[in-house]
Amino acid sequence: MADDLGATLAATLCDARHFSGTTVTVQPDTGHEGGEAIAYSLAYLGLRRLGSLRAPFGPADPENPFRQELRWGINVTAWSHRPDTSMLRDDERGNTWQTYDADTSDLGDWAAKATYVRVWEEEAGDWSHADVPAPDGPERGYPILVVE
Q: Out of 40, 72, 88, 119, which could bridge 130 as a Cys pair, Cβ 3.0 to 4.6 Å?
């Protein structure tokens, strides 16, 4: 359970609406720590489409018994094409890519559009990974490893 102390958060990707059908659990990549950003083809994951997903959040302070403040969460970026960098242009949101940062029971049009996904972590209040300056310049984004 995502609320358990020491639990590792992961996204659950489902090929049907309402968190049903074939499901796959995907751990976040290490792109947020300077490691590799990884995009998976839905075919590689064994999904025929992306109908719904769970993107949980973790507690800010595991020592706090109330755990009301959120520290970090799982994000899922879906692409309609094979990505080559992590750069996400805002003017392409909804057309070539879409990011989800909460449980979504019905991806609507994106159920048929999505062909690749990246699962990544983000600390609460951080800027989107699209806004992080990349080593090759902010206009290029980070390289992304595509697994097919």
A: 88
Give the strand pairing for 70-79 and 57-59: antiparallel
Phi–psi pair at 33, nearest 5 degrees: -105, 15
How far apart CA 115 and CA 1 sit, in angstroms, is 28
Cα–Cα nearest to 14, from 41, 38, 49: 49
User: Residues 126-145: pLDDT tens digits?
Assistant: 544 444 444 444 455 678 89
Nearest to 120 by CA among 15, 18, 26, 4: 26
pLDDT in tens, 56-105: 987 666 666 655 555 678 999 999 999 987 778 888 888 899 999 999 99
Backbone angles phi, psi at 130, to 5 degrees: -70, -20
